[in-house]
Write a structure and sequence with these properties.
By secondary structure, the chain is α+β, with helices and mostly antiparallel strands. It has four helices and three strands, in the order αβααββα. The mean pLDDT is 91.
Length: 105
Amino acid sequence: MDTQLKRGLLEVCVLTILSKEDSYGYKIVRDLSEHVEITESTLYPILKRLEKQSCVSAYTVEHKNRLRKYFKIEQVGQEKIQEFLNDWESVLAIYKFVKGGGKDE
């Protein structure tokens, strides 16, 4: 799969996890791994990009005498999910075209 396409899909997957509840790196990987293969080394650059784009914000919480960094989806992140969903019909049409199907399939 094209790396740019995969990166975009992974970003939306991370945002979707965060739209359900605030979470931290290891838990995001665990929750996502049920649906898509991802490692922490892949996740953290995605979170950093999403934070730079104001899609997520971060805060820390003490857990067992250690600080744990949590991520929270912001309005921009919610809008990014909606944009993906709105664009999905176009992506499906292109997929069908490439696969060789007609419009009425």
